[in-house]
Amino acid sequence: MSFLLAGPLVAASEGQAVFFPASYNFAWAAAVVAVVAGVIWMIVTVVRSPLTRLAKALWIAVSIALPLVGVVTWLVLGRDARRSGAGSAS
Questions:
Q1: Does residue 87 contact residue 51 with C-beta atoms inside 8 Å?
Q2: Which residues pair with 49 in a beta bridge?
Q3: Which of 13, 25, 70, 80 has a 20 to 30 A CA-CA distance from 42?
Q4: What is each CA distance from 80 to 66, 67, 74, in whole angstroms?
């Protein structure tokens, strides 16, 4: 495995080995912020939705366990639940 780290992927100006440019850090940070914002938005909309308490708890559990999958699934499937008023208001 040490052969994978033998040479730099990107050469720094001072001759130091840099494996990833700094822009990768900004991109990953932006992705994390976007996912966290999506999860917060999803939790707020789930709590305000007319779903049952069990359905709300399951949606929130999915959003915490699988953040990206939960947000995308809520965008696709949760829209029908919000529009139809499925479940009882709690």
A1: yes
A2: none
A3: 25
A4: 21, 20, 9
Token representation of residue 22:
């700094």
d(CA 35, CA 87): 27
Tell me the whole-structure pTM to 2 decimals.
0.64
Query: Tell me, what's the pLDDT at 27?
Result: 86
- Give residue 18's pLDDT: 63
Q: Which helix (H) or strand (E) holds 10?
A: strand 10-11
30-78 residue pLDDT tens: 999 999 999 999 999 999 999 899 999 999 999 999 999 999 999 898 7
For residue 17, what is the enclosing H or E element?
strand 17-18
Rama region for 65: left / alpha / beta (φ>0; ψ in -120 to 50; rest): alpha
Q: Name the token pair of 31.
A: 């992705």
